[in-house]
Automatic annotation (TrEMBL), chains A, B:
HAMAP family: Hydro_lyase (MF_01830)
SUPFAM superfamilies xrefs: PSTPO5379-like
Assigned protein family: Belongs to the D-glutamate cyclase family.
A Pfam family that the UniProt record links to this protein: D-Glu_cyclase
Organism: Dryocola boscaweniae
NCBIfam families: PRK05463.1
Record bears the keyword Nucleotide-binding: no
GO molecular function: lyase activity
Keywords assigned: Lyase
Name listed for the protein in its UniProt record: Putative hydro-lyase MUA00_06110
EC class name: lyase
Enzyme Commission numbers on file: 4.2.1.-
Amino acid sequence: MTNLMKASQQAIAAVREARLAIRNGFDKPTAGMAPGMTQANMICLPREWAFDFLLYAQRNPQSCPVLDVIEAGGHETVLAEGADLRTDIPRYRVWERGELVDEITDARALWQQHPDLVTFLIGCSFTFETPLREAGIDVRHITDGCNVPMYKTNRLCRPAGRLEGELVVSMRPIPADKVADAVIISGRFPAVHGAPVHVGEPHLLGISDISRPDFGDPVRIEPGEIPVFWACGVTPQAAIMKSGVPFAISHAPGHMFITDVPDAAWQGA
Amino acid sequence: MTNLMKASQQAIAAVREARLAIRNGFDKPTAGMAPGMTQANMICLPREWAFDFLLYAQRNPQSCPVLDVIEAGGHETVLAEGADLRTDIPRYRVWERGELVDEITDARALWQQHPDLVTFLIGCSFTFETPLREAGIDVRHITDGCNVPMYKTNRLCRPAGRLEGELVVSMRPIPADKVADAVIISGRFPAVHGAPVHVGEPHLLGISDISRPDFGDPVRIEPGEIPVFWACGVTPQAAIMKSGVPFAISHAPGHMFITDVPDAAWQGA
């Protein structure tokens, strides 16, 4: 983390333009934006809950890989020079006592009202989508211009302190003859969810209707394609919901924070 | 961590015998005991300091690789069935306001006086000593039956909250024609300090006299041998000292907790 790979000048310019557009009101899912640059999930909790959350992440590293932790009150990250975490995410969710109470596009007022928020940036499976596409694997939600489908599962994470909750997964339909490639390619990125947790058989994960995701949009599954499931950085939001955390802010699923770090930095990490 | 590799029945029997001997009074460094089983550094802090410490570990993973975290008051670990962290370490150090105030062999009374201690088990470079020896590399402190030499360095860790401190390193003299092997073999174990942080030139790490380690014992360096330095799990103790933590318990350097997990479990992790 102290010696993070540097991106090219061009890539940095593109990512800054993307963050500026977001700060100025862009309000859509970020999949496919600034390709090759690391996107991150965000979750902020009061200082009093920060240890429980960091421990939850440590105990569930496949779903909650920590990329950076910003100490109480901060809104800057070593992963993105000049970025402001209060404005540079397209859409935020606001949580009270485990319930979603609001969606907003600017979180500065909330940061002022809650000066002790600790912010966690968590890896996102978007990181291995560029290598998947480079290997000739269609990433359906990018092709179709929608949000990735995400599902709560029947698998419980290992609890930590007052936090417990289900594993959330993202799903990409993959042609049967490309599943092995998709496993191998994503497996090279253990720091951003890595290889799939489940291939096919959604009902074994407790997913009764694949066309109705809990977060994001449904996508086409063509004949000959298998639904492949990866651990997802929305897992912390499921823990917020289940554990009744008094207050939290997260990104809205699919609406990520885009960093200055190339996806390649996490390969083999 | 949830699917930890299982050791053989024989290895488990050997490690239980070792822990029982320790519980019954064995009071020496543990290098070479129960070969092939993971040994761990321990550090316990009050609940109120636990977030800062877990964040310090997250920001300095090479020196502070977290193997398990035991929540406030606990003294059992998923890494060793039936073990008691209050008695199954040969020697403990007791810290007050950053100063070493006592060394003891049974910590039960302290656990009772401080019911909110959070305990961290941290990886130890002993894990790659068995593979080093299997590759024909002499591990001097095992051969000579003493403690590994450890040194504070001039390299600062990345701070976290109220915690700051120097990187501590362990040193093994390695014949010049074996240094590359030692790098490659230890590099296969990133979860337990991994490859060396420095090879030769101790003065560049701020070590003025290699024959006077800050922790452990000095070892012979034969002609043709290079001192090779690995990040060390005593690094948290340096942070305790520098940051004036009000109360802490640690293992005494070299006097480790021996788990039920084979060293091989951490290979490539």
